[in-house]
Structures are given as C-alpha cells and as structure tokens.
C-alpha cells in the first residue's frame, strides 16, 4: 500500500517514492479539477457532496488514525460549522468569511466538548462524544430562533467570490474542491510534522509521552479542536453546496457514516477515508430510492457486517498498514 | 553532597491495601541508588510516586529542594526526572530515531530544531547503547534486548538529572546483563540514578548505595557492603539468594 | 397554577425521571462493568419497552393489560439480552470501539424496525384507573402516576442494589469482573454468567421503558435521548458502584425535568453544562474506586 504518509524504509533512496507520490497527487488533483468538464452536472453535484463528506471523514481520521481518539460524535462540529456558515450567509455574509466563521464556531464547540471528553479518556471518550453529538442535534432541533428548529436553515444564498455568484454545479464544485484540498493539506501537514509524531507517540503510549514531559491531555485537546475546525470547514462547504442545513447533519447518523468511511477506507492513508466517503455517499444516494427511507437499517447492518468481517480488528489494520 | 531527592514519610494505599507505610529515602546527587526487596515491598510504587504517576496518600517528595508531591508527571519530567518502564512502552508504530527524538525535544510539541542537529544527537544516543545503524528501523522489528537498550537510550536522551529505572535487567541473558552494567557505569556522574532491580549481581556492580524495602518501609539503607553485611537484612530476607526469594519479577 | 405548585410538580417529575434513569443506567453499567461491553443498543431496549406498554397495555391501560405488558416486556428483555450476549461474545477480546460499533449497528437496525412496526407518530399510553389524574395531599396536588412510579422505581432500584451488593448472585457477578477465569474455577460456566448479566441488564432497560411510557410516550428518537441520559449518568456516577449512578441519575432527572419546564429550547445546553460542571469539579466522576481504578 503506497500511502502518502512517510512509512517507507529509509534504506531505499528517499527521492523516488517522494517523486512518485508527488506525481500521483498532481495527477489526481488535475483529474479532480477537470471533473466538471467531462462529468454531467448531476454527477458533478454528487462528486461535490463526496468532497464535502470526504473532508469530514479525513478530519475524523486525524483523531481515529493518528491520535487514537475514536469519536462517535464528530458530526457535531460538522453541523455547528454548517449552521454557523448558513446563519452568516442568511444574514448577508456568505463566501469565505462564512466558512471562516463556521470553522471558528466548530473549533469553539470542539474546545468545550473536548475539554470534557478528552480529559475523561478511554471508553468514557466514546460515551461523551456520542452524548455531545446527540445533544448538538437536540439543540439544533429545539433552538428555533437560531437554527430554524426541525426545518433547519433553508434558502441559504450561494457563495460569492469577488462579485461572482457560484450557483452552478461546476462553480460550486471548484469552490468546494479548493477548500477540500486546503483542508486535506492542513490535515496531512499536521499528521506528518514533528507534532504529528508526538500525536502518534501519544496513541502508542500516553504514559511514556507524559514521562518525557509532554502535556498529553493538552496535545490531544489541540488535535481534537483542530479536527473539529476542519470538520467545521466541511460543514461550511455543506451549507454552500446543499443550501440547506438540518439537525440530521449534526446528528448521530452523519457521525456514524463518517466513521464508517474511515473504517472502510482504512486509517493508514489520507485518500483512504476519502474513498470510503465516496463509497458511502454513492451507496446511500443510489440506494436512497430503493431503500424507501430505510437508510438507518442499511447503515446498521453495514456496521454489524464490517465489525464481523474484519476478523483482525480495526485497530490491527492500522498497525499492519503503518508497519512495512 | 547535595540531596537531589528526599522522600519523607511517604504512605500509599490502593483501596484497603497499604503498600507504602512511611518510607524515608534520601538520594544524594550522583548516586547510583538501588531499591531492592521482595515482591510487594512497594519498590515500583515508590518509583511511580517519585515520577508522579500516582500521588501518595501521605508524606512528601522533594526534588532538588522543592516540594513536588503534587506536581503532574510532565512537570516533573521537564524539571529533570526521567524514567524507564518495566514493561516496555516504546512507541511501537514509530521508528527507533523517532522514539529518541521525541525524548530530545523535552515535551515541547512545537520545538524547532534543525534536522541535522537532531539527527546527530539521535545517532549519538543510539551509539551509546549499541544501536548504531538502527535509526530508521520500526520499533516493532527490534528484539527484546534491543528494546530494553532503546528504553535506556530514550530515558537518557531526555537529559534527566534524576533517572528512574524500573528493572532494567528484567528478562536479559547473562551476557546482555554484562552489557547493561557497562552501559549504566558509563552514564555521566551528573545523572543520578535510582533503580529497582532483582538481579543482585547487577545491583552490586552498579549501585553506590542500596536501600532495602520490606513490607512498605525502608528496612535499611547504606553502601552495598554495609547492606550485604547487615544482620537485619540477612535475617529478614537474605536467607537464600534473593532471586530465589522473589521468584518472578512483577507485582507492586 | 402557582409557581410553587409548578416547581413542586417539576421536582416530583424529576424524581420519577431520575429513578427511571437509574434503572436504565444500572443495566448499562452492569453490562459494562461485568462484561466490559459498552451496549449502545440500550436506548433501543428502553424504547421497545415503551412501545410494548402502548401495544399490549393499550392507549388506556387497565390493570390486566398492564400485567400482560409487564410479562411481555420481561420476556422480550430476556430474549433481547440473550441475543445481545451471543452477538457480542465473539468480540470479547476486541476493542471498545468495535463493540460500540456493533451495538450501534444493532441500535440503528432496531430503531428502523421499530419505526416500521409502530410508525412515526407518538404512541401515548395512559396509566390504569386509579393512577391517572392527581391526588391532593396537604393542600398540594401531585400527579398520581408519578408518585406511584417513584415508589415502584425506588423498590426496583433497591432490589438492584440489594442483588448486586448483598446476594451470592451479586458476589458471583462481582467475581466475574475481577477475574473471569476464577468463575470457571469455582465451577460456574462463565457463558452463563455472561448471559445472565445481559438478560438482567436488558430487562432493567425494557422495564424502565414500560414504566416511563406514560411520561415519555413512545416515539422515534426517544431511544437516543434515553441512551445519552444513561451514558451521562454512567460517566458522572462512575463505573463499578451503584451509589454513584443513583446520585447522578437523581441529579440529571432534576436537570432534565426542570430544564424542560423552564428553558425548553435550551435543555440540551443545560444538560451538557451540568455534565461539564460536574466533570470539572470531579474529573473522575462523583464516585470512583481506588486511585488509578479507572482506565
């Protein structure tokens, strides 16, 4: 598996895999950038949704795959980012400032939620992130003056970029793609930098990292807030693309789908979760009509299958992929 | 001589079980101080309390004249208390070099240091424990005794003033133990060492001072020679060879 | 109604909800504490109990129909517990995340099946005659069902406490937590203990659903609401004790009841705020075992 992460043995010359990776990344980016030129508008819109969801899954992967913090409520920050960006767009400020606002709001909520969940740690982290996700959805449902209640925020204006209204499938797509790539790059930098090594060290042994002088809880909280901010960016992109934000976007099903994308795609690379996201979105969209509203059933069965059919366990997949 | 570490009347209990009952321990700078005693005497618990992984139920721990009893682990680590672990907790998904270099930055997440400078330091640290040329090997691929030595390299790389070693020789063959003794003797005298060890040959080859823990208190403390000859110790528990008394390492 | 009367009603309500929460959370805590399985399908069990109360007990329960509903709920809870025990057994050596994913998958399937069976409408059920309406004591009127519920739930809570802390069955359960091999050495099949714990925990959840039906009314989404409350109670109350979750459940019963009465739009914030406040003051929960007892 040729992941983007630097897991190659150094006995080989360092340059070759780097060049190969750079070529693959460049080719992939070009292919993505040119997509609206060879895809039908409907397919372009689907691809836009995949990018939005892929960025959410990738930000979750920073927690699950790098720091070892499996969050069951990551969509909370996605939803907060989406609501904040949609609220801002409905009140006259759309485009990049709305995205930044979404990111800031998501980061703030992640800071408050993380301060509680990260400190508790272990299985309590699972419980508390699930609770945070559900409470966020309930808040979105009941705080009508801001969130529009169960109808959500609709009629969100299309983003504008220096006077240009991005309301065509292709223009929306490019707008989303630009921020998708920026978000992915930021995540990758965070994971491969010196800080990323610290994060993986904490995943492997928090005791040792503490004994070496690292304030592990603070570092984990930082990663949680960063991942939350990127999820908020993805949420802002959702508002720009879908023009509608509902409580379900912050809720458990969205969290579960994102986690499923990470689990299916594998936590060892950055494009893995994005491919997983593509699979999840395509399956959900194409089965949507046939399932007649039984999405949760399909999702639930998929979870059960994934857990049983990965006999070595999700955690060990990670180890196998990072060790050459 | 200056005392680098002073434990005063330290008590510790797990639920109803009292593990330490009023331990007094003074360690002078530069000492190689061995903690010996049968299983359940509280040796590993004492190390944990000094490192800060647990807080004592009573008593105080002073490090370089300052009360650190309530300081968290990372603060003590930054103040110069380093430790190795009995059960290897090396960072399994990282390389040997990454394990060492995480110790070099001393807990600062955003440390900026030129790569070349750091690589030289990593190489020096690895050479000092005989792991030259293994820098880019993933830790998962190391042998047991290589792991034990990397464990010490990591602990030393953090440049501690007080180094706590929890059974450094556990599971090593006789030859490997010889290498370990050489390694520990080569540690500069600016580093004070407190270590828990079951192998008495290693203890008497390395230690400049020995404290015997028994049932949660310090039974006696002195030079290796004094301890070896103390009738109290002989009677209390040096009856046979010590290894036979303790059996398997582990426990408290 | 005068303010004092509203406050009093909200408090009695909160007490009833708190005891219901305790019974639900005790089942969750029991399964986690004994079997190390985080059962996220617990809310679905509660909801099924509430639906059965409406389906078998009827929109207007009578004493005989309530009796039939109780039997149905216990039988269903026992069967569901046995099934959960079988489904999670192959994962006993795997991580908490994987067990959580499995039980979440089961919860999603259960929620979908329930909404297919019972529709998306609220299924309200009224308690039998004699428990509907209010009683007046010393000039204050109380909703009778809630008062009765406080009594029944308190009895049930006491029974749970007594079973776990005082009986040989409870001692066996506690031994299983400490050392699973030891139970086999005593001559008890650990699979039986495992099944027993799941059955007991699940029956507690379905019974709580039945008792809570006239207050909460069965509806889609109630499963996650209850699951979150139960998780919060377990986190705050600490694992391995019965007293901790009891006090936490009573606290969050009040927060939930008073919150919904006073600030209906912001009840979720109030709940999270209380949770955060407790965990800031007591990072390891209200009650914990020895230092380092929690991982």
Summarize this structure as a short list of keywords or feature phrases.
heterotrimer, A: 324 residues, mainly alpha, two-stranded antiparallel ribbon, two-stranded antiparallel sheet, 15 helices, disordered N terminus, disordered C terminus, B: 252 residues, alpha/beta, Rossmann fold, six-stranded mixed beta sheet, four-stranded antiparallel beta sheet, 10 helices, 25% strand, BCA_ABC_TP_C (chain B), ABC_AA/LPS_Transport (chain B), ATP-binding (chain B), nucleotide-binding (chain B), ATP binding (chain B)
Provide a descriptive summary of the structure in words.
The complex is a heterotrimer of chains A (324), B (252) and C (295). Chain A has 15 helices and four strands. Chain A has 324 residues and is an all-alpha fold. In chain A, a hairpin with a 2-residue loop joins β2 and β3 (164-165). Chain A starts with 14 loop residues before the first helix and ends with a helix. Chain B has 252 residues and is α/β, with parallel strands linked by helices. Chain B has a domain at 3-90 and 160-246: 3-Layer(aba) Sandwich (Rossmann fold). Chain B is 35% helix and 25% strand. Chain B has ten helices and ten strands. In chain B, the strands form two sheets. A six-stranded mixed sheet of chain B has the order 6-7-8-3-9-10, with helices on both faces. A four-stranded antiparallel sheet of chain B has the order 2-1-4-5, covered by helices on one side. Chain B is globular, with a radius of gyration of 18 Å. Chain C has one domain (3-281): ABC transporter involved in vitamin B12 uptake, BtuC (Orthogonal Bundle), CATH 1.10.3470. Chain C has helices spanning 3-35, 42-55, 63-88, 96-118, 144-166, 168-178, 180-186, 190-216, 222-237, 243-262, 267-281; strands at 134-137, 140-143. Chain C has a two-stranded antiparallel ribbon with strand order 1-2. Residues 289-295 of chain C have low confidence and may be disordered. Classes of the chains: A mainly alpha (324), B alpha/beta (252), C mainly alpha (295). Chains in contact: A-B, A-C, B-C. The interface between A and B is medium-sized, with 29 and 35 residues.
Write a brief structural summary.
The complex is a heterotrimer of chains A (324), B (252) and C (295). Chain A is mainly α and 324 residues long.
Write the layout of secondary structure elements.
The complex is a heterotrimer of chains A (324), B (252) and C (295).
Chain A: H1 15-33, H2 35-38, H3 41-67, H4 75-90, H5 96-120, H6 122-142, H7 144-147, E1 153-154, E2 160-161, E3 164-165, H8 169-192, H9 194-204, H10 206-211, H11 216-242, E4 244-245, H12 252-265, H13 271-291, H14 295-309, H15 314-322
Antiparallel strand pairs in A: 1-4, 2-3
Helix pairs in contact in A: 3-8, 3-11, 3-12, 3-13, 4-5, 4-6, 4-11, 5-6, 5-11, 8-9, 8-11, 12-13, 12-14
Chain B: E1 3-14, E2 17-28, E3 32-36, H1 43-51, E4 58-63, E5 66-67, H2 73-78, E6 81-83, H3 96-104, H4 115-128, H5 144-157, E7 162-166, H6 174-185, E8 192-196, H7 200-206, E9 209-214, E10 217-222, H8 224-229, H9 231-236, H10 242-246
Parallel strand pairs in B: 3-8, 3-9, 6-7, 7-8
Antiparallel strand pairs in B: 1-2, 1-4, 4-5, 9-10
Helix pairs in contact in B: 3-4, 3-5, 4-5
Chain C: H1 3-35, H2 42-55, H3 63-88, H4 96-118, E1 134-137, E2 140-143, H5 144-166, H6 168-178, H7 180-186, H8 190-216, H9 222-237, H10 243-262, H11 267-281
Helix pairs in contact in C: 1-5, 1-8, 1-9, 1-10, 2-3, 2-4, 2-8, 2-9, 3-8, 5-6, 5-8, 6-7, 9-10, 10-11
């Amino acid at each position: 598996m040729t992941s983007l992460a630097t897991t190659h043995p150094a006995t080989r010359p360092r340059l070759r895999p780097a060049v190969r990776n750079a070529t693959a990344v460049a080719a992939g980016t070009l292919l993505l950038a040119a997509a609206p030129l060879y895809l039908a508008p409907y397919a372009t819109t689907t691809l836009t949704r995949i990018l939005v969801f892929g960025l959410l899954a990738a930000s979750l992967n920073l927690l699950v795959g790098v720091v070892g913090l499996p969050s069951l409520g990551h969509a909370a920050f996605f939803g907060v980012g989406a609501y904040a960006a949609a609220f801002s767009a409905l009140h006259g400020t759309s485009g990049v400032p709305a995205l930044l606002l979404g990111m800031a709001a998501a980061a703030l909520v992640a800071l408050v939620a993380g301060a509680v969940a990260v400190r508790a740690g272990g299985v309590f982290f699972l419980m508390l992130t699930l609770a945070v996700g559900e409470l966020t959805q309930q808040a979105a449902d009941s705080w009508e003056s801001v969130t529009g209640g169960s109808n959500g925020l609709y009629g969100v204006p299309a983003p504008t970029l220096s006077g240009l209204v991005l309301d065509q499938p292709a223009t929306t797509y490019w707008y989303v793609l630009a921020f998708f790539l920026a978000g992915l790059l930021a995540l990758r930098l965070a994971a491969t930098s010196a800080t990323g090594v610290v994060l993986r060290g904490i995943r492997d042994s928090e005791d040792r990292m503490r004994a070496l002088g690292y304030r592990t809880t603070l570092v984990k909280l930082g990663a949680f807030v960063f991942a939350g901010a990127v999820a908020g960016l993805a949420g802002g992109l959702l508002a720009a693309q879908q023009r509608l934000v509902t409580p379900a976007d912050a809720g458990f099903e969205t969290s579960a789908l994102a986690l499923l994308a990470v689990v299916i795609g594998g936590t060892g690379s950055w494009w893995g979760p994005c491919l997983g996201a593509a699979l999840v979105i395509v399956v959900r969209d194409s089965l949507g009509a046939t399932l007649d509203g039984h999405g949760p059933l399909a999702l639930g069965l998929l979870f059960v299958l994934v857990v049983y059919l990965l006999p070595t366990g999700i955690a060990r997949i990670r180890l196998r992929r990072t060790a050459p | 001589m200056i005392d680098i570490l002073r434990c005063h009347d330290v008590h510790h209990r797990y639920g109803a079980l009292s593990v330490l009952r009023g331990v007094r321990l003074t360690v002078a700078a530069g000492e190689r101080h061995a903690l010996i005693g049968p299983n359940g005497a509280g040796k590993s618990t004492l190390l944990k309390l000094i490192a800060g992984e647990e807080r004592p139920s009573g008593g105080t721990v002073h490090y370089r004249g300052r009360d650190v009893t309530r300081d968290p682990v990372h603060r003590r680590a930054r103040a110069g208390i380093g430790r190795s672990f009995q059960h290897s907790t090396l960072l399994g998904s990282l390389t040997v070099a990454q394990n060492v270099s995480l110790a070099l930055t001393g807990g600062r997440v955003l440390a900026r240091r030129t790569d070349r400078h750091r690589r030289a330091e990593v190489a020096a640290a690895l050479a000092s424990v005989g792991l030259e040329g293994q820098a880019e090997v993933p830790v998962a691929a190391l042998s047991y005794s290589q792991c034990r030595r990397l464990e010490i390299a990591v602990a030393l790389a953090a440049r501690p003033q007080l180094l706590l070693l929890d059974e450094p020789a556990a599971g090593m063959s006789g030859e490997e133990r010889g290498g370990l003794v050489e390694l520990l003797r080569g540690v500069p005298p600016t580093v004070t060492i407190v270590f828990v060890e079951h192998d008495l040959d290693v203890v008497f080859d390395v230690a400049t001072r020995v404290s015997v823990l028994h049932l949660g208190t310090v039974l006696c403390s002195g030079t290796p020679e004094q301890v070896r000859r103390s009738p109290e110790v002989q009677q209390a528990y040096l009856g046979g060879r010590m290894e036979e008394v303790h059996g398997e390492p582990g426990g408290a | 109604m005068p303010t004092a009367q509203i406050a009093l009603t909200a408090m009695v309500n909160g007490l009833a909800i708190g005891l219901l929460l305790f019974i639900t959370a005790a089942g969750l805590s029991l399964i986690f504490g004994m079997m190390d399985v985080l059962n996220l399908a617990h809310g679905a069990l509660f909801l099924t109990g509430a639906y059965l109360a409406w389906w078998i007990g009827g929109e207007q329960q009578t004493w005989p129909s309530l009796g039939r509903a109780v039997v149905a709920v216990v039988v269903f809870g026992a069967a569901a517990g046995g099934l959960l025990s079988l489904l999670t057994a192959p994962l006993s050596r795997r991580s908490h995340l994987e067990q959580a994913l499995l039980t979440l998958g089961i919860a999603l399937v259960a929620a979908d099946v329930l909404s297919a069976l019972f529709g998306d409408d609220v299924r309200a059920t009224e308690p039998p005659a004699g428990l509907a309406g209010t009683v007046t004591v010393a000039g204050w009127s109380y909703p009778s069902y809630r008062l009765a519920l406080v009594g029944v739930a308190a009895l049930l809570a006491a029974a749970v406490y007594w079973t776990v802390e005082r009986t040989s069955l409870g001692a066996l359960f506690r031994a299983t937590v400490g050392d699973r091999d030891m139970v086999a050495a005593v001559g008890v099949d650990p699979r039986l203990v495992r099944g027993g714990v799941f059955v007991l925990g699940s029956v507690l959840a379905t019974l709580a659903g039945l008792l809570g039906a006239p207050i909460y009314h069965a509806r889609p989404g109630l499963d996650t609401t209850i699951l979150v409350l139960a998780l919060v109670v377990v986190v705050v109350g600490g694992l391995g004790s019965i007293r901790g979750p009891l006090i936490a459940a009573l606290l969050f019963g009040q927060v939930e009841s008073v919150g919904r009465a006073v600030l209906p739009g912001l009840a979720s914030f109030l709940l999270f705020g209380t949770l955060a406040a407790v965990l800031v003051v007591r990072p390891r929960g209200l009650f914990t075992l020895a230092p380092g007892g929690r991982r």
